[in-house]
């Protein structure tokens, strides 16, 4: 399967872009969705979190108190490292299983930390949704119930804008209006269909040419 890595910082509009690709029939493996479900109610990961932090990490219904945990790990880097060591192997396992199961012409691995967590090694090409940091702050304040201080902590924890651009094969600029996105996605989609078809053809030829044992 030919894999497109899709990433962008907080507030970049990465999900909007992945939805546009999905509307073209392309399957999207979303690392954020996987990460949320890894610590769902009654999972081993949630049991480990509860053992670590106690009942304050839970809501009244027994589900994870995500807002509390988010504040906790941003305030205490050692706890963030512990949580990453718990969840990252589980997340990667799910990512690889879902990539393998995809059957669209190509598949997208969407991850805000694609660069930081070295998930680029699973990708044939990387697309970055790029916006200015001012745009990130403005959109995140409007969208999420978080403080300006917490937004700065999130920005500091993610790769820099330049780091993401350095890892990019393709870039979508999303500082403009929403209607500017669809034409950019449509053009890239046609390119990716060609890349994926070419990769399949190459692998088929290699298989045909492989000597029989």
TrEMBL record:
Function per UniProt: Catalyzes the phosphorylation of the 3'-hydroxyl group of dephosphocoenzyme A to form coenzyme A.
Q: Which GO terms describe its cellular component?
A: cytoplasm
EC annotation?
2.7.1.24
Which gene name does the record give? coaE
Record-linked HAMAP family? Dephospho_CoA_kinase (MF_00376)
Q: Which reaction does it catalyse?
A: 3'-dephospho-CoA + ATP = ADP + CoA + H(+)
- The answer to keyword Transferase applying to this record is yes
The places in or outside the cell where this protein is found are: Cytoplasm
Q: Which residues does the annotation say bind ATP?
A: 11-16
Report the main location listed first in the record: cytoplasm
* GO biological process terms, semicolon-separated: coenzyme A biosynthetic process
Which family does this protein fall into? Belongs to the CoaE family.
- Mind listing the UniProt keywords for this protein, alphabetically? ATP-binding, Coenzyme A biosynthesis, Cytoplasm, Kinase, Nucleotide-binding, Transferase
Q: Which GO terms describe its molecular function?
A: ATP binding; dephospho-CoA kinase activity
Question: What name is this protein filed under?
Answer: Dephospho-CoA kinase
Q: What class of enzyme is it?
A: transferase
Matches recorded under PANTHER family: BIFUNCTIONAL COENZYME A SYNTHASE-RELATED (PTHR10695:SF46), DEPHOSPHO-COA KINASE-RELATED (PTHR10695)
Name the source's superkingdom: Bacteria
Which pathway, metabolic or otherwise, does it act in? Cofactor biosynthesis; coenzyme A biosynthesis; CoA from (R)-pantothenate: step 5/5
Q: Which organism is the protein's source?
A: Pseudidiomarina halophila
One family name in Pfam for this protein: CoaE
